[in-house]
Amino acid sequence: MSGLNPILTCREVIDLLADDLDHSLPVSVELKLKLHLFLCRSCRRFRRTYRKTVGIVHALRGVEDRFDPGILPEELVRRIMMRRQSVGTVSDTLGGLDNEPAAGA
After folding, report:
1. What's the average model confidence in pLDDT over 1-18?
2. What pLDDT score does 35 carry?
3. Which of 7, 8, 24, 72 could be bridged to 12 by S-S, CB 3.0 to 4.6 A?
4. Short-list 9, 8, 11, CA closest to 95
5. In angstroms, rounded to a whole number, what is the distance separating the alpha carbons of residues 76 and 92?
6. Contact call for residues 10 and 100 (beta carbons, < 8 A)
7. Cα Rg for the chain, rounded, in angstroms?
8. Does residue 2 register a pLDDT over 50?
9. How high is the pLDDT of residue 67?
């Protein structure tokens, strides 16, 4: 993290989102996160999307066991499964984010 710098970078914010969602951040880090989110529209949007995605994943747990893939075209199921296996980490997907502090900071 950025030590004494009160402004987190976008990359640091992304690294903190899981702990933010679990409400397990130390107060000092939570305040830095809130400051960054106040200043950075892109990170606010990303956080909102991240929270929605986590909610959907939690809601879908176990659906795979109950889902009958026979109702979908075989090619579609095959492509989904291939894509699922090839998806990288979240940080791989975020290659466009830089390590600069929030805009306006």
Report:
1. 82
2. 95
3. 8
4. 11
5. 25
6. yes
7. 18
8. no
9. 61
Q: Return left, alpha or beta for 62; rule: phi > 0 is left, psi -120 to 50 is alpha, else beta.
A: left
Please report the sign of the dihedral spanned by the C-alpha atoms of residue 67, residue 69, residue 70, residue 72.
positive
The one-letter amino acid code at 38 reads F
Local structure of residue 3 (DSSP, 8 states): T
Question: Encoding tokens for residue 76?
Answer: 């579609």
The two structure tokens encoding residue 49: 């999307």
3-state secondary structure 52-91: HHHHHHHHHCCHHHHCCHHHCCHHHHHHHHHHHHHCCCHH
pLDDT digits (tens, 9 = 90+) for 45-93: 999 999 999 888 887 776 666 666 566 777 877 887 787 777 654 444 4
Helix (H) or strand (E) holding 12: helix 10-21
Task: Report the Cα–Cα distance between both ends of the chain, in Å, rounded.
Answer: 17
How far apart (Å, rounded) are the C-alpha atoms in residues 55 and 49? Answer: 10
